[in-house]
Amino acid sequence: MTEPAFLHATRDSYDTLAVDYAARSRGELAAKPIERAVLDAFAELVGKGGGGLPVADVGCGTGRITEYLHGLGVDVFGIDLSPGMLAVARENCPGLRFEEGSMLGLDLPDASLGGLLAWYSTIHVPDEELPRVFAEFHRVLAPGAHIQLGFQVGDEPLPMNDGWGHEISLVFHRRQVEGIAELLRRAGLEVRARLWRERDTDGAFPERAPQGFVLARRPIVSGGRQDEDTN
Predict the structure, then answer these.
(1) pLDDT confidence of 97, banded at 50, 70, 90?
(2) Cα 177 off chain centre by
(3) How many Å from the N-terminal Cα to the C-terminal Cα in the chain?
(4) CA-CA distance, 179 to 185, in Å (whole number)?
(5) Whole-prediction pTM value?
(6) How many CB atoms lie within 10 A of CB 93?
(7) CA 91 to CA 62: how far, in whole Å?
(8) 3-state secondary structure 103-124
(9) Which tens digit of pLDDT belongs to each residue from 17-53?
(10) CA angle, residues 170, 132, 224, in degrees to nearest 5
């Protein structure tokens, strides 16, 4: 099967950017308390409800968030499309596992994950491919396991052909929180929390757009029926 053009462009672009990306993102999470709170809550949820299964950081890049979750006690490994980003991740986090792969078709058994993080990694997936990605996330999650997404908020995509002086070809798809929540529901996932925050305009890491976060889980099924909240 021919690889979609966006995958090829995304892989090549991040291979080109890997070293600069690692240097420029160093310290970013420490400057973002809301993001840390989101990740901390996710770590607690997968620790309680993961059933002893590992957690995948899909689109892990240089492994900085994988390493953060590991520091919180999460049994986590990283998956990324870019060999260049994975090389940096393995160098920076030698005790963690990183695998090459695509979220369009994860090389994982059904219901094998106790959690999944897609932290700004679905942002290069075109709209028409997003339902396929969310269906794949549903497939690999165990019943009751949580998924946490982070992404830029907006209505128009942002194409970029230059990154820190390097020639690249990336499209950043900005999306609305409720739109992402609805696509997750259509994929059979149960939305548990939504968060929107305004963009940071000052400090060391100014942003172009607001930021969105959606937490969902694969429903727990018992007795052939999906469990429902009683409160």
Answers:
(1) very high
(2) 14
(3) 47
(4) 10
(5) 0.94
(6) 18
(7) 9
(8) CCECCCCCCCEEEEEEECCCCC
(9) 999 999 999 999 999 999 999 999 999 999 976 689 9
(10) 150
